[in-house]
Amino acid sequence: MPVIITPNSREHWLELRREDVTSTESAGLFGLSPYATELELFYRKLGNVSDEIEQNERMTWGLRLQDAIAHGVAEDMGLTVRRINGYWRHTDEARMGASFDFEIVSHADGPGLMEVKNVDFRVYRDEWLDDEAPPHIEIQVQHQLEVANREWALIVCLVAGNTPRVIRVARDRQVGDKLRAAIRRFWQRVNANTPPAVDFIKDADTIREIYRNGSGAPLDATGNNRLHSLALSYASAARDEKDAVARKEAARSEMLTLIGDAGKVTGEGWTLTATETKGSAGTTITPDMVGTVINARSGYRQFKLNLKEIA
Questions:
Q1: Which residue from 40, 24, 35, 18 is spatially nearest to 208, judged by alpha carbons?
Q2: CA–CA gap between residue 8 and residue 3 (Å, rounded)
Q3: What digits encode the pLDDT tens for the residues 208-242?
Q4: Is residue 150 within 8 Å of 112, Cβ to Cβ?
Q5: Fewest CB atoms within 10 Å of the CB: 24, 114, 127, 150?
Q6: What's the per-residue H, E or C state across 29-47?
Q7: How many CA atoms lie within 13 A of 43 on its CB side?
């Protein structure tokens, strides 16, 4: 049985997560996470990079809808589910933990897990298969099965707010072995303060956060050929970026002169949406503040180009 801890606050829960590699983090150890690289995880665990995730509107509504999605699918499938509270740790593998959405109880196949996702239609179309979730979610669920010592799970995905998709996942013990080995190696790195290799594109945000303090002594880089080469490369890229913005604005302006007031334009392999979004006069607030207007907005014209084919 796993070790189950009941956090006494959100901060306590975050502290527990910082001590482990969690199910939402482990895909980063294989370069498969869209949210964090292994380098970012390394510096998170050392405390050099923040692990706070800023909630956006999509995430907030996803949390609000979790219960409705889980219980709705359970009703359709004749299942009994309940929320899993607490933070769980692997019994044998140090510093491997997980939080869960729901568990499936009173089932002929034994207790299972249910991971709930609320997914935009385009994201589902581009990243999901009918019988397979994106790799980082598949790894997340295998990690959860390993920690909970359960044999199966359902990934429940609500697409565009009204179309449920259910993927059954069996525990893969070989994947579990690889997860535990990767987590073991990761903590060995952290304990030895040996960071993983840097990908200067994928790790750009992490690098900026690590080196955000610029109060050190001046550095004379005369004779440093690599820094000299990078400085020239950066300056060249900055010029290219400026030129690209100018070309983009020129192309937009000329396209508008050619399409006039057309709201939708279709070409060979591309479509353009250029409809007008009306402005708003705003709302006058409370009687004691007559004349004060909030949320006023000028109208504007959209310009969304969709390439069906790669130019």
A1: 40
A2: 16
A3: 999 988 888 999 999 999 999 999 999 999 999 99
A4: yes
A5: 127
A6: HHCCCCCCCHHHHHHHHHC
A7: 18
Determine the residue type at 79: L
Give the bridge partners for 97, in sequence order.
89
Structure-token pair, residue 204 = 């750009």
Phi/psi zone of residue 68: left (φ > 0), alpha (ψ -120 to 50 degrees), beta?
alpha
Over the stretch 30-55, which tens digit does the pLDDT of each residue have?
Answer: 999 999 999 999 999 999 988 776 66
Q: Distance between CA atoms of 248 and 138, rounded to whole angstroms?
A: 39
Maximum pairwise Cα distance, the chain: 72
Phi/psi at 290 (5° precision):
-55, 135
Selection from 46, 30, 2, 297 nearest residue 145 by Cα: 2
Handedness of CA 197, 200, 202, 205 (dihedral sign): positive
Instruction: Measure the CA–CA gap between 167 and 134, rounded to whole angstroms.
Output: 11
121, 124, 126, 132 alpha-carbon torsion, rounded to 10°:
-160
Residue 116 near residue 101, CB atoms below 8 Å: yes
Structure tokens at 291: 């004349």
Q: Are 3 and 94 in contact (CB under 8 A)?
A: no
How many C-beta atoms lie closer than 10 Å to residue 306's C-beta? Answer: 9
- Residue 262 backbone phi and psi in degrees, to 5: -60, 135
CB 138 within 8 A of CB 127: no
pLDDT confidence tier of residue 59, bands split at 50, 70 and 90: confident
| Backbone dihedral region for residue 161 (phi beyond 0: left; psi -120 to 50: alpha; all else: beta) | left
What gap in Å lies between CA 177 and CA 53, rounded to an integer?
Answer: 29
Domain boundaries 3-209, CATH class: alpha beta
Sign (positive or negative) of CA dihedral 186, 190, 192, 194? positive
Comparing CA positions, the residue from 188, 130, 141, 208 lying closest to residue 169 is 141
Contact criterion met (CB below 8 Å) for 308 and 270:
yes
